[in-house]
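Can anyone check this?
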Amino acid sequence: MIDQIEFCDVLILNKCDLVSEEELEKLEKVLKTLQPEATIIRTTNSNVFPSSILNTGKFDFDKASASAGWLKELQAGHQQHTPETEEYGISSFVYQRRLPFHSERFSKWYAALPEEIVRAKGIVWCATRNNVALLFSQAGPSVQLQPVSYWVASLPKLEQEAVIKENPQLLEEWDIEFGDRMTKLVLIGVDMDRGELTRELDNCLLTPEEFDQDWSTLPDPFPWAANKQTV
């Protein structure tokens, strides 16, 4: 359902007669955080003018693909902002680190996500899957972590150069030691403790001792196969 919300341009909020105005406003703020571009229509008994939802000419695939709240937050990065939704305890932030996660500790963390997190999505770097960028996607109780692409830094030199030539923006965040490897994760929630969540995620990172050892010997909880080659 959240995937549909993040991709829509019109969102119908039905049964509005069954909740208070304050609850409706809070719900709308959550929905606007998930999908800032959508037009929200309140209805009772699904009564809506057909012209509001049929043949509107509003849909634009490219715009819809880039309109999700988590993606806009990711693009904004660490820019300071105070969204109006914070008056309802709704907030979001980007967790970004250049060290990889200890795969087992990270898997235990996301297996017990706090209820305050409504949505989390982004790219993750795990030590035991060092060559592969992992896509993390959470919506409520549903959590997925899966390979999405190879890190450019893991490719042979000639392939790296070809990819960078086609995508020069990669150099804007290129690290001299790790290349494009990093974790960049957006968290959206209600009454989140940003400091505590950041500490919990930092505790999932490799310690200096773990960083210096052979990463392929670290516990690996993931069922899908992938190359475990170290840096």
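Reply from J.R.: I decoded it. DSSP finds eight helices and seven strands in the chain.
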